[in-house]
Amino acid sequence: MADLSLTAVSVVVGSTRAGSNRLLDGINLNATGGEFIAILGENGAGKSTLLKAIMGLMPLATGTILVDGQPLSALSPRERALRLAWLPQSIPLAWPLRVFDAVALGRFAHGGTPRALSSRDHAAVTAAMAACGLSDFINRSTPTLSGGEIARVHIARTFASGAPILLVDEPVAALDPGHRLAVMDLLKQHTGNGGTVIAVLHDLGLAARYADRIVGIRHGRLVFDLPPETAMTASNMADLFDVHVHIDTTPGWPQPVLISQIISDPADPVEN
Amino acid sequence: MINNRPVNRWLLPLLAVILVAAMAAAVMIGPTYLSLGDTLSALTGSGDTLTQTIVFEVRMPRAVAAAITGAALGISGAALQGLLRNPLAEPGVLGVSASAATAATAVIYFGLATSAPWLVPIASLCGALFATALISGAAFRMRGVASLILFGVALSALSGAIMALFVNLAPNPFSLSDLINWTAGSVANRDWGDIGFALPFVALGVLLLMTIRRQLAVLSLGEDTAHGLGVDLSRVRLITILGAGFATGGAVALAGMVGFIGLVAPHIVRPAVAYDPGATLVPAAIAGAILTVLADIGIRLFPWGNELHLGTLAALVGAPVFIWLVFKLGNARHG
Known about the structure:
The complex is a heterodimer.
Chain A: E1 4-13, E2 21-31, E3 36-40, H1 47-54, E4 62-67, E5 70-71, H2 77-83, E6 84-87, H3 99-104, E7 116-117, H4 119-131, H5 147-160, E8 165-169, H6 177-192, E9 196-200, H7 204-210, E10 213-218, E11 221-226, H8 228-231, H9 234-241, E12 243-248, E13 255-261
Parallel strand pairs in A: 3-9, 3-10, 6-8, 8-9
Antiparallel strand pairs in A: 1-2, 1-4, 4-5, 10-11, 12-13
Chain B: E1 2-3, H1 11-28, H2 36-43, H3 49-84, H4 96-109, H5 112-115, H6 119-141, H7 145-169, H8 176-184, H9 192-210, H10 213-218, H11 223-228, H12 233-255, H13 261-269, H14 277-301, H15 310-334
Helix pairs in contact in B: 1-3, 1-14, 2-3, 3-9, 3-12, 3-13, 3-14, 4-6, 4-7, 4-12, 6-7, 6-12, 9-12, 13-14
């Protein structure tokens, strides 16, 4: 079971007196086990807010979120963590933790701690570290790692959690091309094993190549929810980002090539 | 269970041995020097009565009071640093000790303590709980490391002013040395009764804090990520408020305000536990006990005209460490 269902989800911030801001507006989204969903949208479109709302970090103004048919609000923090793993865009580390320990924290919901892991916890941590190319970093202190290496530590912790539904927010933004493909392959492998992946991506090419469905969000509203072949069109990308793209289909998947930015409002020209 | 090393397995036994040695030294050292043989025979009940009185009625209660105070402050500091993800947090700096002392002195100055001495630790506890709750609420709104410390500075200043106000208002003729005993901290002349009043609070606080060691470890990743990993944040906050409040309240009732022990103790042990905030709690408690017992030996050992107060020596050593930590933090943020 790795099903997620959002119905009419809205998130509002700010009081009505000071003027409120609708971050999410009536989002409907269904994900079932085995699906890889990419979320696309401009900065501030509500992508990260959507993942936070699913994690219970944003109070919903309207709507319901069901995880495997159960309302999210009925789950304890631990029960939710056993079903959903979330990788935020940035994670401040308060202390210079060891790499192994930073990954092992992903086993919290299973009862494990960095100091006391069951053999199952230990196996999950070791496997996740190996998959993310961190086997040589076990005893390294996290402040000595590069930005991309730190990002892989957080990805490894997400995998180590063993949760069937992964919500990953720009998981490969900090990674080099090789590790980008490696992490995307791992996510694809997770859906191949029956898991669900919802990934916020800014790389249109990776989204088109890996995702089973592409969800476009703008101004907190769902613009489209389509398979890559029909989602990845010049007009959809223009609707989402105000950019001209050329769609190249030679590699076997729709490969968007950025051409130029659309200047939609002549009064506010974009310099280039 | 697989024990995930670098945490030195000898750390706790080593700290325990040092604590026992420090407490033995604290019993031996004083105006009348007692040899190890004298001390041991008094402990086994075979020495002369004078030695037995010195050991059981004077020096042992003092050493035990110092150890309990230090352990309470050490574990409270470690828990507050873990919850707030702030290496400068501790009961003294955050104004928890000052609030506890203010509440305790209020009870004394208004004459309530003479009829009901048990009101002193209760008042101290209420003052500490009030401050930890206030700080936890403030931490919601203040993101930076420094702003919360400034909040503590303000809380300490306010507590000091209220205490001074009590001095003026108190119906009883009240001595300045009493006030200094509370604000500068001391474990001199404590008896087993004093310890009996404070110990249950400290013990309860320690037990509460021990239940959230795993959660504090996950909080290294920040509150949102910890929530995502299954940590019940409101529960962890509540238990830290209660645990640090009970432990610090008990410590202040016993010894007055002793600053910086709760700051220094966690930092000493942290590298030995791979910087895991949860694994820091117990070693920080023992290290706090050792530091306080050693500080209390220090003020008796050196010939300063009048005996220094425990909190004075703790601040003389601890405040420079605080300044060093501030510099280290500044460097880490800027490059």
